Amino acid sequence: MSVVARKETLVTTDPNIARPPSNLWRDAAIRFSKNKLAMGALVIVALLVFISIFADVIAPNPNLARPIDARKFPGEAGYVLGTDDVGRDMLKRLVHGARTSLIVGLSVQAIALVIGAILGLSAGFLGGWVDFFVMRVVELFTAIPQLLFALFLISIFGGGLFNVILAIGLIGWVDICRLTRAQLFSLREKEFIEAARTVGVPPLQIAWRHLLPNALTPLIIAVTLGVPIAIFTEAGLSFLGLGINEPTASLGKMVGASSAYIRVYWHMGLLPTLLIALIMLSFSFVGDGLRDALDPRLRK
Amino acid sequence: MKSDKKVRLNRRTFLRAAAIGAGSAVIAACGGGGATTAPTAPPATLVPPTTAPTLAPVIPATAVPAPTAAPTAPPAASAETINGVTLPADAAPPEYQTFVTYFDISADWTSPNQMETIYKSGGFGSITNVTGDTLTRLDKNFQVQPAAALSWEADETGKAWTFKLDPNLVWSDGTPVTADDFVATFRYAADPTHAWDFAWYYSAPGAIKNWDKCVAGELPLDQLGVTARDAHTLVVETETPAPFLPAKLVYSEVLSAAKLKEYGSGLYTAEPDKTISCGPYILKEFKPGQRVVYEANPTYKGTNRPRIQKVIQIAARPEAFFAGYQAGEVDRVTGEGLQTADNEIIARDPELQKQIRLTAADFRTDYLFFDCQNPPFNDVRVRQAFSHIVDRDTLIKTIITPTQGIPAYSFLMPGFPASNSEGLKDIQNYDPEKGRALLKEAGYEGGKGFPKLTLWLRNEPQIRVALATAIAAEITQEYGIEVEVSNKEFKTFMDAINAKPTQIQFGMVSYGIDFLDPSNMLGVWLSTGRHNWFNKTFDDMVNSAAESTDQEGRIKVFQDAERMLVEEAPAVFIYHRTVADIYKPYVVGECFEPNVAGFAGLQWPGFSSMSNSMQTLYMSNEITKFRDKPPA
Amino acid sequence: MVAYIVQRLAGLAFVFILVSIVAFLLMHATPGGPFDEPNMPLPPSAKANILAKYGLDQPLHIQYINYMANALRGDFGYSFSSPTETVAQVIGRTWPISITLGGITVVVALGSGILLGILAAVRQNSPVDYVVTFLATLGLTVPNFVIALWLILIFAVQLKWLPLGGWGDDWRQIIMPMVALGMGPLGIAARYTRASLADVFTSDYIRTARAKGLAEQMVVMRHAVKNALIPIITVLGPRIPDLITGTVFVETMFRVPGLGKFFVESVLDRDYPMIMALMLLIAALWGLVYLLTDLLYTWIDPRVKLT
C-alpha cells in the first residue's frame, strides 16, 4: 500500500493509509508510558509477579504450622499479619497464595484466550458453517455443568494445580469466544476491511492485523475480569474437595476457608480478599491502559 | 489501618483501603470479638469429663423389670395438654410448648421413618423418627427401656426373644397396633424390592435369622425370623446368641401393615395427607427444603408422651444457624451446626456460655487410618511410628478447642461400654523420638525412601481440615515425610474406601455408634468391616464376645480386642467429639440433668422415639420474655 | 430471517442430543454413585437390590435409551433424593421462584450497572469514574457468601429491619438475596459498559456527530450507547440465565426455595435424573439466550449479517 500523505494533516483513521510505516507497538508503548494510572498499575503487577517468582526466597516455609500459634490476630505474637487456623504465618501464606492464584488466574485466561479467540475469530470472520459449528460447540460447553465436568476430570485424573486449571479453563473460554465473534460481526463490514479486501490482503492477515486489534477492548476486559472469577472458581472447587490440596496456599481457598471464622477472625478472610482486589484492580488498569495505547484511532 | 506500599496510586488505594477498613471495623464490632484479648479458658463445667465412669453393660440379663412410670414431675395445678400430659408448674402455657429448630437445607428427603430410609431422612429435619414407636428406647444413661415392647425375655438358647407389646398402642386412624405391624415392618426392611439403605444393620453381629438370605432374595420374606405369636406378642429369632438385641432394636420404628399393603411402600409416611402415626407426633406440614411441622398426636396411647406440643423445623444453611439463634428464631442450635467462630463468640460471652449443654452425642471418634495391605503401611512399625506423632493435647487446646473434644488414645470413648481409655492411653502416646526410632528400624531413617503421602479427608469442615493439616505438617517436620492433605468430596471418598481393594492409602475419618454395644464400634475393624485390616485373632475375639451371654466376661474380651487394635495400629486415634449444643434458657427439663458420665445435654439419640427425653423436655414460662407470641 | 431462526432451532435440537449423551457419559464415568454407603458397607446382595430398584444395574446404553424415550414423552423420572416427587414436579415448583428472584435482580443489578457504567464513561477519568470502578471491583471480589452473612448479621440480627430469610410471606425477603446476588453482575455490567462507551466516544462517527452540533445528550443516547451495546449484550446475555437458575449460596443462605441448590446438590448426590433434566433445561435456556442476543445484534447494527 502506498503511503504519501503528510502525517500531521490527514484525519482519516486507517493506519495503513494515513502515515508512513511506523511500529504500532512502539507507539503503543510510548502512549502507555504516558498514562500514569496504567504505569502505576503495571508497577504493581510487576511487583506481584516478582514476588510470585521469588516467593520461596521472600517467604520461606509458608507451611510451617505451629498449632500453638493458631488464629493469632495481626500484631500478636510477632506475626505481622497474624496466623491462620493451623498456626501458619499469614504474611507468608498470602505471598504464596498470591503466586498460586496468579498462576491459576493467568493460565486459565491464557487457555480461554487461545481457544476462545481462535474459535471466535473463525466463527465471526468466516461465518457460515464454521459459525454454525462453533456456536453448537459453545452451546454444548455452556450446558455441561462445570461442577460435573470438574468432578469427572479431577476424580479420574487426580487433583493438583494442572488439572484444576484445565477444569476451569476448558469451560471458561465461552465468553471470550462469543465476545470475539460479536465484535467481528460488526467490524467485518466496516469500510477499511472492505478496502483491505478489495486490495487483496489475504483473509488471515486481515484477521490478524486489522480485526484483532480492534476487537481487543472487550477481550481485555474479559481477561481482566476473568482472573478473579477463575480464582474464586478454583476456591469453590477446592472447597468441594476437587481442587488444590493442602498445604498449598491459594487466595481463593483462603477466603473460602475463612467462612467458618469470619465473625471473629476477620483477618483470615479480609486479607486475602484485599489481595485479590489488588490483583484485579491492577490488571484492570493495565488492561485499560493497553486498550487506550493500542487503539489506533486515538493517535494524533 | 494498613497503608499500601504503592505510592503512585494514592487516591485509589486510599479509597479502597478506607472503605474496606471502615467495613472491617463494622465487621469486628458486630462480631463482638476483642482483637487482642486471648480467649478465656472455658469454665470448668463446660469441659467434658475425661474420666467418666464406664457405663454398666446395657443388656438386661433376661427379664426386664416392670415398666417404670413416667418420670414424676410435681403435679401442681397446671395446664393439661391435648395429648393428656400435665405440664409442670413453671411451664409456659400449652400454646407456647413449641420447639423450633433448624435443619440443613441441602439434606435429601425421602421419609421421616427410619425403616424406610436412614440416610435420606435429613430433609425431614434434625428431629425425625417421632411418628411411630420403637420396640425399645434409651434413657439418658443409655440404658435400654421398654417402649412399644413392655417386656422381653430370651429363651435358653439365647437365640429367640419374646417381646410383649403394649396393647394400648393405636394408629391415628383408630386401628390398633399389633405384632403384625412389626412383622410387616421387618419384612419390608428386608424386602429386596424396597432395598433398605440400612440393610447391613440387622446382619451380623446379632443377625436376625435368615436376614441375609431374605435380603439377597434367596428366601421368601415369610422365612424371616420375626413372627407374631399373637396380636401382642412378637418373636425375634437370631442366627447366633445376641445379648444386645434389645439395644439394637431401637431402630424399629413401626410402619402400618395396612398402609404398607395399600401403598406398596413406606413412602406414605412422607405425605401429611396420607400418613398415620402411632407415635407421639404426627406429621402436619411438609414443604420440601423449607419447613417441617409435627404436632403432638392426641390419639397416642404409649409411654413416651411429650410435653412439647409442636415441633417446627426450618431449613437453613449451617453458616446462618447461629445468626438465626441470636435473632431469636430458633430455640436451639446443635453442636454440629455451630461454626468455629460461633464457638468463639460463645466462649467470650458468659451469658451464652450458660446456654451450652454438652453431650457425648454419638460417641464419635476421629482417627487416621492406613492401607495395611501394601507398603509402606503393611509394616506395623511404620504404623506405630505414625501413632506417636499426634500431639493431641496441643491440637485440642489450639485447633479443636476443649469444648469440642477430648483426646483419644483408643477407639471407645469414655462412657461407652467396655471403654478403657485410662488403660490404653500410653500405647499411642505422643513421642516423636520413639517414632523416629521405629521408622529407622523399618528402613526409613529421616524419611528417606518414604513415598509422598496424600492424606484423604471425607468432606470435612474447616476445623478438621485444619486438624489434618497440622498433623500433616508435624509428620513432615518431625519425620521428614512429605504429606499433602486433600479434602475429598464425600462420594469420591466413600467410593475409594469401599473399593476392593481399597484405594485410600492414608486417610482420616470418623465413626459414631449405631447401637450401644462394643460389637458395633469394634465391628468397624472386622475383616468384613470398612477398613482393610485383616486380623483373624481380632475377628474371633470380637465375634465370640458379641455372642457371649457372660456379661463381665465379654467386656473383658472386648477390652483385650481393643488393646490389640491400639497396639497393631491400623488406626491412629485422634479425638473423641463432644458436642456442645446451645439452648435458649427457657428450654428445660429433667433430661438436661447430668447423666452418669457427667454430660448435661440432650443425649443421643436426642429428641426422637428412640429416647425418652421428650417426656421431660419443655418450655418454661421464661419464654414470654423472648417471644411475644407463640411461634408459628 | 425466519429461515435463520428455524435453522438455529434445529441446531438446538441437535445440541440437546449431544448434551444429553455427553452428560450421561460424564455422570456415569465419575466415581461414586447415588447410593453409596456412608457408614458400613452393605452386603453385596443389599447393594444389588438398590441398584436394581433404580435400574442402575443395566448396561449404560439401555439406561440411556430408556431415559431418552421417557424424556421425549415428558417423563423425566423421579429424583433419587426425594422419591415422592418427580423431577418435573421439583423443577416446576422451584423454578418460578428462581425466575422471580433472578428476574428482579437482573433488572435492578444490570440496570444500575449499565447506568453506572454510562456515568463513568461520560465522566471519564474523574472521581466519579474512580468510585464506579472501585464499586464494580468490590462487587466482584467480595465473595457472595461473605456479603450474605454480613447482610444477615447487620440487617436481620442487629437492626432487625429485614427478615432472616424465606420466601413468599413478606415482600422484604427479596431485598437481601437481591443485593447479594446482584453485586457481581452489577460490577461486570458497569465495567463493560464504561469500557465500551469510552471506546466508542473516541471513534469517528461520534466526532462527526459532535462536529455537526447535535446536543451532547443526544449523542450519548442515540449513537454511542447503541453501538456499545454489542459487547455489553454479549456478556450480559448469559448473566441472565445465570441469575435465573439461581446461585446455591445466596438461595440457601436466605432460604429461598429455588432451583439453584439442585445444580450443586444433584451432582454431589449423583442424582442422575435430576442432573439430566437440569442440563437439558440449561441447554434450552442458553440456546434461546444466544439466539436472542444474535438477533439483537442485527437490530442494533444493521450492517451485521448473521450468516
Please outline what is shown here.
Chain A has helices at residues 15-18, 24-33, 36-53, 55-58, 90-126, 128-143, 146-157, 161-172, 174-187, 191-199, 203-239, 251-257, 267-294. Chain A has 300 residues and is mainly α.
Would you kindly provide a written description of the structure presented here, covering whatever features stand out?
The complex is a heterotrimer of chains A (300), B (632) and C (307). With 300 residues, chain A is mainly α. Helix content of chain A is 69%, strand content 0%. The model of chain A is unreliable at 1-10 (pLDDT under 50). Chains in contact: A-B, A-C, B-C. The interface between A and C is large, with 59 and 63 residues.
Keywords:
heterotrimer; A: 300 residues; mainly alpha; 0% strand; disordered N terminus; B: 632 residues; alpha+beta; 6-stranded mixed β-sheet; 4-stranded mixed β-sheet; 21 strands; 27% helix; globular
Number of strands of chain C: 0
The total count of helices of chain C amounts to 12
Class by helix and strand content of chain B?
alpha+beta
Beta-strand level of the residues of chain C, as a percent range? under 5%
Percentage of β-strand residues of chain B: 15-25%
Taking the sheet with the most strands of chain B, its summary is: 6 strands, mixed
What is the β-strand count of chain B? Answer: 21
Low-confidence stretches of chain B: 1-77
What's the overall average pLDDT of chain C, rounded? 82
Note the topology.
The complex is a heterotrimer of chains A (300), B (632) and C (307).
Chain A: H1 15-18, H2 24-33, H3 36-53, H4 55-58, H5 90-126, H6 128-143, H7 146-157, H8 161-172, H9 174-187, H10 191-199, H11 203-239, H12 251-257, H13 267-294
Helix pairs in contact in A: 2-13, 3-5, 3-13, 5-6, 5-8, 5-9, 5-11, 5-13, 7-8, 8-11, 9-11, 11-12, 11-13, 12-13
Chain B: H1 10-31, E1 98-104, E2 136-138, E3 144-146, E4 149-154, E5 160-165, H2 179-190, H3 211-215, E6 226-230, E7 233-237, H4 245-248, H5 257-263, E8 281-287, E9 291-296, E10 310-316, H6 318-326, E11 332-333, H7 340-347, H8 350-354, E12 356-359, E13 365-370, H9 380-387, H10 392-400, E14 405-407, H11 421-424, H12 432-442, E15 453-458, H13 462-479, E16 483-488, H14 490-498, E17 506-511, H15 518-522, H16 536-547, H17 551-568, E18 571-577, E19 579-583, E20 587-588, E21 618-619, H18 623-626
Helix pairs in contact in B: 9-12, 16-17
Chain C: H1 2-29, H2 44-53, H3 60-72, H4 87-122, H5 127-141, H6 144-158, H7 175-201, H8 204-211, H9 216-244, H10 248-253, H11 260-269, H12 272-300
Helix pairs in contact in C: 1-12, 4-5, 4-7, 4-9, 5-7, 6-7, 7-9, 8-9, 9-12, 11-12
